[in-house]
Amino acid sequence: MSTFRVLLTPGDGIGPEVLAEATKVLARIERRFRHEFVYEEETIGGAALDRYGVALRPETVAKAKASQAVLFGAVGGPKWDDPRAARRPEDAILGMRKQLGLFANLRPVRIYPEMIAQSTLKPEVLEGVDMVVIRELTGGLYFGQPKKRWESARGRQSVDTLRYSEKEVARVMHVGFQLARQRRKKLTSVDKANVLRTGQMWREIAVEVGKQYPDVELEHILVDACAMYLIRRPASFDVIVTENMFGDILTDEAAMLAGSMGMMPSASLGRRTKNGLGIGLYEPIHGSAPDIAGQGKANPLAMILSTAMMLRLSLGLEAEAAAIESAVDGVIGEGYRTPDIAAAGDNVVNTTKMGDLVAERV
Ligand code: IPM
Ligand code: MG
């Protein structure tokens, strides 16, 4: 029997609800495949602000580092939304990413054929959509210094900085090319090279790194055009690699291809260790959804699918990951839906029922 150490950080809003369904599914994996998951749980985000005065404690980061993976729910909510607040729930996710060195954020987008009707796009546009957006996660506009607000004689001023080093761009490009190699061998590098210096350097480095992967086709698209092509010809994308902020925006757009944010998992990865896979953080991209928290309406599938990514990418358990993914396929195929993805004639279920249905099929 193998034992795996996993840190749970449920966070705010629907985070705890969807995470409970993910561990329910993992309990089935334990029994069927004879593994043991040893959990620690930490309070983060707004809940931690209330309890400790900070969104992310150093103790929590230390526990994450002592684990093989982190299952992260969501952070944020109206209670902590004061734009002037010095400390915000979001510090928790940003701090985790930075302090764990998780520079590559993988956000797969695939369409369930049974849900094509759910999308606002035409079925013929969605056919064959299967891409992974890799968002650079520890640099760029989110973290560049200076980053501040101040008062001057001419009124309020503020600055954020878009800055990248060669090393930061190259390492995320390598992740992209390696992934493209295992897929349809096409990489789209997204930048704003017509205006930004960082974009020019980004493109230059993409070309240089690409020379090491001659079997992968490399294309460059400006970020504004990419926003357009994502809804005009989404099936043409295989792997996309882009800057932190661009990736944040484009992945919400890409989630709409799948019909709901409630279906989109993500994995955040850092440097691979010599003999291991390296720690990863796994979270749904949907956020804390305070408007539906505590009502049993949340879709746990993004969290459950993030758990499958954890099994595959941090724990090396491919068959176990595939078992979860095919259980989700099964549940969708049988017509079960949470409210966010339901259409007329569907069998609408709540959060815990959806978790049960997936768990039963593992
Ligand atoms: C995401 C979220 C976060 C981000 C927020 C919650 C800080 O939107 O993971 O996409 O901007 O990265
Ligand atoms: Mg986002």
Compact summary:
By secondary structure, this protein is an alpha/beta fold. The protein has helices at 15-33, 45-52, 58-65, 91-99, 123-126, 166-181, 197-210, 223-232, 244-255, 301-313, 318-333, 351-361, and strands at residues 2-11, 35-41, 69-74, 104-110, 130-136, 144-152, 155-161, 186-191, 217-222, 239-242, 267-269, 280-282, 336-337, 347-348. The mean pLDDT is 96.
Small ligands present:
3-isopropylmalic acid, magnesium ion
What does the average pLDDT come to? Answer: 96
Number of domains: 2
- CATH 2nd-level architecture of the largest domain: 3-Layer(aba) Sandwich
* Poorly predicted ranges: none
Structural class: alpha/beta
Counting DSSP E segments of at least 2 residues, the number of strands comes to: 14
Which features would summarize this protein structure in a list?
Isopropylmalate Dehydrogenase; alpha/beta; globular; 12 helices; ten-stranded mixed beta sheet; 2 domains; 14 strands; 362 residues; binds magnesium ion; two-stranded antiparallel sheet
